[in-house]
Amino acid sequence: MSFNRLRLPLLLAAFALLPACNTVFSEQPMLNGAPPATQVPRPGLWVSTDPDCTVATAGPARDWPNCARFVILDPTGAILLGDNDHRDGDKQLSLSIRFGARDPALAEIRIDDAADPTTNGYAYVAFAPDGAGQAGELTKLRFWWVKCGPSQGMSYPGIDEKCRPASLAAILGAARGSSNDDVETMRWVRQPGPGDLPTGTKTSR
Fold first, then answer.
1. Alpha carbon distances (Å) from 79 to 28, 34, 132, 140
2. Maximal C-alpha separation, the chain
3. At 65, phi and psi to the nearest 5?
4. Is residue 83 scored above 80 in pLDDT?
5. How far apart are CA 5 and CA 17, in angstroms?
6. Does 85 have pLDDT greater than 50?
7. What is the pLDDT averaged over residues 3-17?
8. Peptide bond into 75 cis (omega under 30)
């Protein structure tokens, strides 16, 4: 999948902190030349909820409770939305995503924030099908951030002390090492509608 961008309010403030929180981060894209992922998520509206969260997913996603975090995946690339607390903020952050690699598959997330260029670069999420019998596009998956090491101050092979990877192989190794850390599940809900986008959202290609 090619890169595609969505200019949107800052919905995931955590992205701005990625370089400082034990998460692999690169100034350059690392998936160039990687084999395509065997399966990728189905385009549309996705949700990840807290265990005790109740959400009426037929309603506009921007009105969902804070315990429901969502992603809208665009067919031509990807656009990331997230935590409802920041849905109507006035700070703009450009995010894009692409999929590649195998064992595990990776999502490479581009962070491009004109207001704070020091946070710009690429972060990595690993993902896998959640449950058997999913042919073609995934509709339910497990995902986890690729960590720098098993604990603060320790790094996986090929990841330096600043959490920068030396190669794609290093990222994949770190992804396998992180596979038991803070794993979340996410499921496809439906195709998105106008009420799912934050107020004032603009697209750019």
1. 19, 21, 26, 18
2. 45
3. -65, 160
4. no
5. 20
6. no
7. 34
8. no
CA distance 121 to 109: 8
Query: CA 177 → CA 25, 55, 88, 172, 174, distances in Å?
Result: 16, 33, 36, 9, 5
pLDDT at residue 41 tops 80: yes
Position 90 pLDDT exceeds 80: no
Is the pLDDT at 106 greater than 80? The verdict is yes
pTM recorded for the entire structure = 0.78
Phi then psi for 127, rounded to 5 degrees? Answer: -150, 160
| Length reported for the chain | 205
